[in-house]
Amino acid sequence: AALEAPRALNLNSNEYFSGPYGEDVVFIANDWHTALLPCYLKSLYKSKGIYETAKVAFCIHNIAYQGRFAFADFSLLNLPEEFKSSFDFIDGYDKPVKGRKINWMKAGILESDKLLTVSPYYAQELVSGEDKGVE
Fold it and tell me: Where does this protein act, in terms of pathway (predicted)?
């Protein structure tokens, strides 16, 4: 729905402009829940010449929740195999299953055009060591 809204909804109605935004947009994805957005943008839209200039900024609010799932679940996402490496993740922690998984947040980070955090301090904290959440 987020990828269709700028093309279909009259989101910017004023005296100078009325109608859909069109395709020159920046999508803001927030945390793991929306991390698939850049993948679907590339595979379903850009590959067909739609949203060719659109960008995605991915914002991390809480790195503790990354959207880690069984590796076999990748097939449920209906994404091309070329995206598999962006999701591939070896989890060393028992949460709840240790081993190879897919990681939605990892894919969101790798496939987005820009990475944001809630503050400069949080950005520094995230890259200060593996124990801070970015393995």
Answer: Glycan biosynthesis; starch biosynthesis
